[in-house]
TrEMBL record:
Binds 2 calcium ions per subunit. Belongs to the paraoxonase family. Disulfide bonds join 17-327. It comes from the Eukaryota. GO terms for molecular function: acyl-L-homoserine-lactone lactonohydrolase activity; arylesterase activity; metal ion binding. Gene3D superfamilies: TolB, C-terminal domain. GO terms for cellular component: extracellular region; membrane. This is Paraoxonase. The keyword Membrane applies. It holds the Pfam family Arylesterase. Homotrimer.
């Protein structure tokens, strides 16, 4: 039941969609700046997950959604950063008061856990590596939401780091995963008790933090306190495995990349591939939030959708290890 192993989806198509050239091995997370520049985290490799490019390191791609026919181009990363072991997962951008753009990237070099902070240098089309963060409270990082130039909330999708203990933890349904707040002065646990904490994001007014619990099929709404602690406000139950969360800055709607059937995701069969599903959640704080299926596919076009995000009538859908889709809404 946690993997929704028997669930099949009925197709929900959009009128105009195309696969994005140059993305063949996953675009696990996508974050779009207010000016329409979209960052893609590509090439994730994870124990137990399929990969279409097992020997190629991951990277960060950039796409300008204001162009008539936008293309995804790989960003250069400054010297001194180990590109060979770059294995990017969740990403988040932060714009400082002086308009400096920082990109936070969850990284799994040699299947370890770090958060990398880069400065985006638009004129050079590059990322300048500033800092690598490792911490005992960040043993199994999945996603981050940046709240300052070196400040973020992060989800841990497992409590343990040992592969066997990770498996046992999931099998026993321990609900030990958590959310951590990190700053240069303080690192602390701010929410716990999740089955498998995954995507994380923040409301446009910065009052609420949203956390996707992938194996519990839930989105948690948490209120941000002045000391950066989080208190639970509500839980929205869904009928699918919820992965990354994106926020429409103008409406506050939550866009969710989902896995209708988790079994197909982890046991890859090209003749019966994992399906994709995109949900839009309106008025999550109300008594009856409106949940709409905007896109669904049985894997014939897009396999394993992990993120969906919107900008000016454009919807981008990324996947764990497959292609990415550019759609007009």
């Amino acid at each position: 039941n946690r993997l929704k192993a028997s669930r099949e989806v009925e197709s929900v198509d959009l009128p105009s969609c195309r696969l994005i050239k140059g993305i063949e091995a996953g675009a696990e997370d996508i974050d779009i700046l207010p000016n329409g520049l979209a960052f893609f985290s590509v090439g994730l490799k994870f124990p137990g997950l399929h990969s279409f490019a097992p020997d190629k390191p991951g990277g960060i791609l950039l796409m300008d959604l204001n162009e008539e026919k936008p293309k995804a181009k790989e960003l250069r990363i400054s010297r001194g950063f180990n590109l060979a072991s770059f294995n990017p997962h969740g990403i988040s951008t932060f714009i400082d008061s002086d308009d400096t753009v920082y990109l936070f990237v969850v990284n799994h070099p040699d299947f370890k856990n770090t958060v990398e902070i880069f400065k985006f240098e638009e004129e050079e089309n590059s990322l300048l590596h500033l800092k690598t963060i490792r911490h005992e409270l960040l043993p199994s990082v999945n996603d981050v939401i940046a709240v300052g130039p070196a400040h973020f909330y992060a989800t841990n999708d497992h409590y343990f780091t040992d592969p066997f203990l990770k498996y046992l933890e999931t099998f026993l349904n321990l609900h030990w995963t958590n959310v951590v707040y990190y700053s240069p002065n303080e690192v602390k646990l701010v929410a716990e008790g999740f089955d498998s904490a995954n995507g994380i994001n923040m409301s446009p007014d910065k009052k609420y933090i949203y956390v996707a619990d992938v194996l519990a099929h839930e989105i948690h709404v948490l209120e941000k306190q002045p000391n950066m602690n989080l208190t639970q406000v509500k839980v929205l139950q869904l009928d699918t495995l919820v992965d990354n969360l994106s926020i429409d800055p103008s409406s506050g709607d939550i866009w969710v990349g989902c896995h209708p059937n988790g079994q197909k995701l982890f046991v890859y069969d090209p003749s019966n591939p994992p399906s994709s599903e995109v949900l839009r959640i309106q008025n999550i704080l109300s008594e009856k939030p409106l949940v709409t299926t905007v896109y669904a596919n049985n894997g014939s076009v897009l396999q394993g959708s992990s993120v969906a995000t919107v900008y000016d009538g454009i919807l981008l859908i990324g996947t764990l290890y497959h292609r990415a889709l550019y759609c007009e809404l």
